[in-house]
TrEMBL record:
EC numbers on record: 7.1.1.-
One Gene Ontology biological process: ATP synthesis coupled electron transport
Subcellular location: Cell membrane; Endomembrane system; Membrane
Highest rank taxon of the organism: Bacteria
Keywords recorded for this protein, A-Z: Cell membrane, Membrane, NAD, Quinone, Translocase, Transmembrane, Transmembrane helix, Transport, Ubiquinone
Protein name (Swiss-Prot/TrEMBL): NADH-quinone oxidoreductase subunit N
Catalyzed reaction equations: a quinone + NADH + 5 H(+)(in) = a quinol + NAD(+) + 4 H(+)(out)
Translocase in keyword set: yes
Record-annotated NADH:quinone oxidoreductase/Mrp antiporter transmembrane domain positions: 123-417
Quaternary structure and partners: NDH-1 is composed of 14 different subunits. Subunits NuoA, H, J, K, L, M, N constitute the membrane sector of the complex.
Gene from which this protein is expressed: nuoN
Length: 478
């Protein structure tokens, strides 16, 4: 007998799965000539999945006997995931059209990855968590090695697959330990079992689960895959990896720690503090010597994950709301930065990734140079740009939870990290001009860059709305 209430709550994933299967057939029979229409249909599927979230509002709850949960927290995360996935699809054709085959399966893989992410953020059981994570990962491995003729892309896919498989094994072992010592795979059951104190077996399971999830968010010391994958993957794929899967993994991390391990707060708080500080300082220091813009953005993502974890370490509703607000602002800053990177092309239209090639951009492409500067200043946390507010929220939540020392170290790490962002701005505005880029290309890319820069500059006008929505999402979780 069909459980219609459960089917309604899982409507976003059903829409994405059905759309992915249909578009897979279209791509199979239409070939690469159907790539553009498949791409736009995939965007329409993502919009449709987002619209189904409106129908769930006010009617959420547990589905399929507690395996899946539809609430404001998952809806907040899915909106960010769907938006960034759609944007990663619409900017891809121009990148692949320059001396590369435009492949129709690219948007289909994105849809399947996003369906997995939806399961991740809505999971209320370790089994659902693992299925969603693997669905996302399997599609991501293929996306990382999408440009088969490029050795760097093939290497990125292989490294991602090998290290991702190791992390999945660690996570699965942790889940088996938790099941063995708590007698349950549901978040609620695990939390109840930990209420009476943490046994050694439960502690080991907790550590292994957090280690497996730390790989997915690329937190130090489980970050080793990130620079190589970001550099080797096609730039639209890198933009996708830096946003949608990052939001899904951090949201999953938050839900697991708060819901499944909330009663063992003192145990996992120490782990989170270590991951946060290690990611902040390593991401800040390791990026200083980078010459490739995509590798620099990889270390930037590691650094930003550390700041998001500062809010989680607080373990309060304000801390969770700060993490969600941070993710929303981070997505805008990162997507805007990658739109600028996509416009780094030589005279023949081939992508350029060398930071030194940005020299003199302020003279040849004033609008692009200004947008680059806005995104870099915001990532550095320079007021009054929106990125400053993101960091202020997580530090304020940490201080409010009695973690003033953590906030102080985080601020120090932010100052160190500002160096490599400012280095890019210095290259753009003060270095001797390098060979100019190709003429202005896609109006779509230019428009997205302009919109992103405007949001970063005028973002404080959105604070009341963002604060209200993130607080509601955090309240649903806690």
């Amino acid at each position: 007998m069909l459980d219609m209430a459960s089917l309604l709550m899982t409507a976003p994933e059903l829409v994405l799965t059905a759309s992915g299967l249909v578009l897979l057939m279209v791509a199979a029979f239409g070939g690469d000539a159907s790539a553009r229409i498949v791409g736009w249909l995939a965007v329409a599927a993502l919009v449709s999945a987002g619209l189904t979230l409106c129908g769930i509002a006010g009617h959420g709850g547990d589905a399929f006997d507690g395996l899946y949960r539809a609430d404001a927290f998952s809806s907040f995360s899915k909106v960010l995931i769907y938006a960034t996935a759609a944007l990663s699809i619409v900017v891809a054709p121009r990148f692949f059209a320059t001396g590369r085959a435009v492949r129709a399966e690219y948007p289909v893989l994105i849809l399947f990855a996003v369906a997995g992410m939806g399961l991740m953020v809505s999971a209320s059981d370790m089994l659902t968590l693992y299925i969603g994570l693997e669905l996302n990962s399997l599609a991501s491995y293929v996306l990382a090695s999408f440009m088969r003729q490029d050795g760097r892309s093939a290497e990125a896919g292989l490294k991602y697959f090998v290290l991702g498989s190791l992390a999945s094994g660690i996570l699965l072992y942790g889940i088996s330990l938790l099941y063995g010592f708590t007698g349950s795979t549901s978040y609620a059951g695990i939390a109840t079992a930990m209420t009476d104190g943490l046994s050694n077996g439960e502690l080991f399971g907790l550590v292994f689960v957090l280690a497996g999830l730390a790989f997915k968010i690329s937190a130090v010391p489980f970050h080793m895959w990130t620079p190589d994958v970001y550099e080797g993957a096609p730039t639209p794929v890198t933009a996708f990896f830096a946003t949608a899967p990052k939001v899904a993994a951090v949201a999953l991390f938050v839900r697991v720690t708060i819901e499944a391990m909330g009663s063992a707060f003192t145990a996992w708080q120490q782990i989170i503090i270590f991951l946060a500080l290690a990611s902040i300082f390593f991401g800040a220091v390791a990026a200083i010597g980078q010459t490739n813009i995509k590798r620099l953005m990889a270390y930037s993502s590691i650094n930003n994950v550390g700041f998001a974890l500062v809010g989680l370490a607080a373990g309060t509703p304000e801390g969770v709301a700060a993490v969600l607000s941070y993710l929303a602002i981070y997505v805008v800053m990162t997507m805007g930065s990658f739109y600028c990177i996509l416009q780094m092309r030589d005279a023949d239209g081939n992508p350029v990734e060398d930071i030194a090639s940005l020299a003199g951009l302020s003279q040849s492409r004033k609008g692009l140079a200004a947008a680059f500067a806005i995104f870099m200043f915001s990532l550095a946390g320079i007021p009054p740009l929106f990125g400053f507010w993101a960091k202020f929220l997580v530090f304020d939540a940490a201080v409010g939870a009695g973690l003033a020392g953590l906030a102080a170290f985080g601020i120090a790490g932010s100052v160190i990290g500002a160096f490599y962002y400012l280095k890019i701005i210095k290259t753009i505005y003060f270095d001797e001009p390098a060979e100019g880029y190709a003429p202005v290309g896609s109006p779509l890319e230019n428009g997205l860059v302009a919109v992103g820069a405007a949001v970063i500059v005028l973002g404080y006008l959105l604070n009341p709305f963002l604060g209200k929505v993130s607080a509601a999402a955090a309240a649903a979780l806690l």
